[in-house]
Design goal:
The protein is of the alpha/beta class. The protein has two domains: 268 residues, 3-Layer(aba) Sandwich (Aldehyde Dehydrogenase, Chain A, domain 1); 192 residues, Aldehyde Dehydrogenase, Chain A, domain 2. The protein contains 15 helices and 23 strands. β16, α12 and β17 form a beta-alpha-beta unit. The structure holds nicotinamide-adenine-dinucleotide. Nicotinamide-adenine-dinucleotide binds next to α7 and α8.
Length: 485
C-alpha cells in the first residue's frame, strides 16, 4: 500500500520539510503505518514565521466582516467534507467513527463559526474620568501566534486555538500532534479553497522537541497557546518566561466525579460511564476518580460494573463500537502499566484490566478493556497521576467535607462534576472545589462562551469566548484629556 505523504502548509502552499526527513504515522487500530509526515525543524518554522510576517500587515487590517466571512467559509467547507474529515480522524486516533462524526468534526465547524461571530462582536472598554478625560482601550492582535495541540481531539482542539487567533487578526504558526496530523493537513487544503490569504495560517508538522520547540523559542512568535501534558507545559513555560511571551497552557487533569446518595441515579450512572470512558478516557475532562456517597456505594458500583462490561471494544470503523484503539503503542504500554501499578498498590480490578484482541484487520491494534478499580486511597499514584486511558477508580465517602478533601487532594485542578438534588450542597461544593470548571448534574456540557481551563498543574489562562479573544489581543490604553473649561 502506498503511504499518504503529508506536507507542511507555508505561505499558502504545501511544502516538503527543508531537511526532507519524514516520520511514520501509524493507524492505531491496525498498528500499520499509513502516512508519512514532515519531520520539520527550525528552518521550516523560520519559513512559516516569515510567511506570517508578510501576511500580518494586511490581515491585521482586514475588517471584522472580512474575517467573519472567511472563517464561516472554512466552517462551511469542513462541514461539506465532514465524512472525509471524520474518516481521517478515526484512522489517525483509533476513536470510533461515530464519535469523530458526531463530536470531533462538528465541534471544529462550531469553533470556526463561533469565533467568526466573535470577530464581529468583539468590543473594548472605555473608562471615563468625569469632566477630566476619557480612557479607551484598543485591543490589537498580538502579531504571530503559535498554536500547539495534542492528539486526543486533534482537529477539535487545533481549531479551538486557530479560530480565535485568526478572528482577532493574528497570523498563526500551528503544530498539530505528530501522532495525529492528517486533519490539520486537510485543514490547510480547506483554507486554500476558502481563499484564506497565504501566510495567515501556517502549519508545521513534526516532533515536539524539534518543530514544537522551534515555535516556542522563536522571538517573533509573541503568544503561545498550548494544549498538552503538564510536563510539556512546564517545559514551555520555562522556555517562554525569559522572553515574556503570552502563554495559555491547557494541561492535564485528574478529575473528581462526586455522586451523592440523593442523585438522579439513572442519569448519574449513564454519565459516570461517559465521563470515564468517552474517547477511551483520553479527554482531559474525563472523570477518572469516582467518589460515591456510602449509602449508594454498593448499588452504584454493581450497576456500573454491568454497564462498563457491556461496552464494546472493537474496530473503530464499526457502528456498534463504543471504545476504539488507544492512540499508540507507547500509550497502550503506559495505560497497561498503570493497571499493573493499581493492583500493586492494593486495587481490585472489578472489570477490564487487560489488553483486548480484536479481529482482523485490527489484530495488531492497541485496544484495552474499560477498567474499573476499587480499594485505592487518595494518596496512591493511581489516584494522583493522570493515566489518560479507560481506567476509572471508585471509592466511597461519608460526608461532603470528606468528598471535598478527596476531590481537592491532587495536584491537578481542571474539572469536577457533582451529582445531587441538594442544590445548596452542590453550590457550596462548587465554591470550594479547586477546579477551573465545575459541572452540577452534568458533565462536559459545553457553552463555547464560558471560560475554559484549569488551575494548579492543569494550567494557566483560559480559552473560550472573550477570554480567547482577549488572550490573542494586546490591550492598549489611550487616555485623552479634555481641554480646560
Ligand atoms: P504532549 O504534551 O506530549 O504533546 C502536546 C503537543 O505538544 C504535541 O503537538 C507535541 O508535539 C508538542 N510538544 C511536545 N514537546 C514539546 C516541546 N518541548 N515544545 C513544544 N511543543 C512540544 O501531550 P499529548 O500526549 O499530545 O496530549 C495528552 C495530554 O494533553 C494529556 O495530559 C491531556 O490531559 C492534555 N490535554 C489537555 C487539555 C486541556 O484542555 N486542558 C485538552 C486535551 C488534552
Amino acid at each position: 500500500m502506498s503511504l499518504l505523504i503529508i506536507e507542511n502548509y507555508i505561505a499558502g502552499q504545501g511544502q516538503p520539510p527543508c531537511r526532507r526527513q519524514y516520520l511514520d504515522n501509524v493507524n492505531p487500530a491496525t498498528g500499520e503505518p499509513y502516512a508519512r509526515i514532515p519531520r520539520s525543524d527550525t528552518d521550516d518554522v523560520e519559513a512559516a514565521v516569515q510567511a506570517a510576517e508578510r501576511a500580518f500587515p494586511t490581515w491585521s487590517q482586514s475588517t471584522p466582516e472580512q474575517r467573519f466571512r472567511l472563517l464561516n467559509r472554512i466552517a462551511d467547507l469542513i462541514e461539506r467534507d465532514l465524512e472525509a474529515y471524520a474518516l481521517a480522524e478515526t484512522t489517525d486516533t483509533g476513536k470510533p467513527l461515530s464519535v469523530a462524526r458526531s463530536v470531533d468534526i462538528p465541534r471544529a465547524v462550531a469553533n470556526f463559526r463561533f469565533f467568526a461571530t466573535a470577530a464581529l462582536q468583539f468590543a473594548s472598554e472605555a473608562h471615563p474620568m468625569t469632566n477630566l478625560a476619557i480612557n479607551y482601550t484598543l485591543r490589537q492582535p498580538v502579531g504571530i501566534a503559535g498554536c500547539i495541540s495534542p492528539w486526543n481531539l486533534p482537529l477539535y482542539l487545533f481549531t479551538w486555538k486557530i479560530a480565535p487567533a485568526l478572528a482577532a487578526g493574528n497570523c498563526v504558526v500551528g503544530k498539530p500532534s505528530e501522532l495525529t496530523p492528517v486533519t490539520a493537513w486537510m485543514l490547510a487544503r480547506t483554507c486554500q479553497e476558502a481563499g484564506l490569504p497565504p501566510g495567515v495560517l501556517n502549519i508545521v508538522h513534526g516532533l515536539g522537541p524539534e518543530a514544537g520547540q522551534a515555535i516556542v523559542a522563536h522571538p517573533k512568535i509573541k503568544a503561545i497557546s498550548f494544549t498538552g501534558g503538564t510536563h510539556t507545559g512546564r517545559h514551555i513555560a520555562a522556555a517562554a518566561a525569559p522572553v515574556f511571551k503570552k502563554l495559555s497552557l491547557e494541561l492535564g487533569g485528574k478529575n473528581p466525579h462526586i455522586v451523592f446518595a440523593d442523585c438522579r441515579l439513572e442519569e448519574a450512572l449513564q454519565t459516570a460511564v461517559r465521563a470515564g470512558f468517552s474517547n477511551n478516557g483520553q479527554i482531559c475532562l474525563c472523570g477518572s476518580r469516582l467518589y460515591i456517597e456510602r449509602p449508594l456505594y454498593a448499588r452504584f458500583r454493581d450497576a456500573l460494573v454491568q454497564r462498563v462490561q457491556a461496552l464494546k471494544v472493537g474496530n473503530p470503523m464499526q457502528s456498534d463500537t463504543d471504545l476504539g484503539a488507544l492512540v499508540s503503542q507507547a500509550h497502550l504500554d503506559k495505560v497497561l502499566s498503570y493497571i499493573e501499578l493499581a493492583q500493586a498498590e492494593g486495587g481490585r480490578v472489578l472489570c477490564g484490566g487487560q489488553r483486548v484482541q480484536v479481529a482482523a484487520p485490527c489484530e495488531h491494534g492497541y485496544f484495552v478493556a474499560p477498567t474499573l478499580i476499587e480499594g485505592l486511597g487518595l494518596h496512591c499514584r493511581t489516584n494522583q497521576e493522570e493515566i489518560f486511558g479507560p481506567v476509572l477508580t471508585i471509592q466511597p465517602f461519608d460526608t461532603a467535607e470528606e468528598a471535598l478533601a478527596l476531590a481537592n487532594g491532587v495536584d491537578y485542578g481542571l474539572a469536577a462534576s457533582i451529582w445531587t438534588q441538594d442544590l445548596s450542597c452542590a453550590h457550596r461544593m462548587a465554591e470550594q472545589l479547586h477546579s477551573g470548571i465545575v459541572w452540577i448534574n452534568c458533565w462536559m456540557l459545553r457553552d463555547l462562551r464560558t471560560p475554559f481551563g484549569g488551575i494548579k498543574q492543569s494550567g494557566i489562562g483560559r480559552e473560550g469566548g472573550w477570554e480567547a479573544m482577549r488572550f490573542f489581543t494586546e490591550p492598549k490604553n489611550v487616555c485623552v484629556k479634555y481641554a480646560e473649561g
